[in-house]
Specification:
Blueprint (H helix, E strand, L loop, with lengths): L1 H5 L10 H14 L5 H13 L4 H11 L3 H10 L11 E6 L2 H5 L2 H12 L12 E6 L11 E3 L2 E3 L7 H15 L5
Parallel strand pairs: 1-2
Antiparallel strand pairs: 1-3, 3-4
The structure holds FE2/S2 (inorganic) cluster (FES).
The site of FE2/S2 (inorganic) cluster has 11 residues, from helix 6.
Length: 178
């Protein structure tokens, strides 16, 4: 635990004043309640978007519980993320219908194109790749969810267009340089 708290990355929320304040408030508000670990983690995940290993160690120390206890909760529930997510998320439905319809080929294509794995974010912070469970659009399998938009019957050769659409939105959103 001490090791994790010695070398905290400069971009970790523990080193960013307003985010550290959110963590402190979550701890103060919940430390005496039953299920404090879960309550604090939920609040931090909801407001900051992830709980880094250093944040887990910090929360464990402040709540006076073992790091293993905090880490156990974070790894058990897929809701918790340990790294910051990208601005956009591309999720692959790994439900049965999508699996049978070949979603794994799309996952491979995405990994190749972006050079990251599922659960990771591109170095520019733009795109995070994730898996998800059935989104209820099985007749459209295989399904890829880009942010909130469900895309059905995605073919491997059409997949790059989805990624380019996300990248193009970003270029369009960039302010023009004078
Ligand atoms: S299995 Fe993918 S939408 Fe149902």
């Amino acid at each position: 635990m001490t090791r994790l708290l010695k070398n905290i990355a400069s971009n970790d929320p523990l080193n960013i004043a307003n985010q550290k304040a959110i963590i402190e408030k979550a701890i103060t508000d919940n430390k005496d309640r039953q299920g404090a670990v879960m309550l604090v983690l939920n609040e931090v995940q909801g407001k900051i978007g992830h709980v880094s290993p250093a944040m887990q160690a910090y929360i464990a120390r402040k709540l006076n519980v073992s790091l293993g206890q905090v880490h156990g909760v974070v790894t058990f529930y897929s809701f918790f993320k340990t790294q910051p997510r990208g601005k956009h998320t591309i999720k692959f439905c790994l439900g049965t219908a999508c699996y049978v319809a070949g979603v794994s080929q799309l996952v491979e294509k995405a990994k190749q194109m972006l050079d990251i794995d599922l659960g990771q974010t591109t170095p520019d912070g733009l795109i995070t790749l994730e898996e998800c469970r059935c989104v209820g659009a099985c007749s459209q399998a295989p399904v890829v969810v880009v942010d909130e938009e469900v895309n059905g019957r995605v073919k491997p050769n059409k997949f790059p267009q989805l990624v380019k659409k996300v990248q193009a939105q970003e270029t369009a959103a960039e302010p023009e340089k004078a």
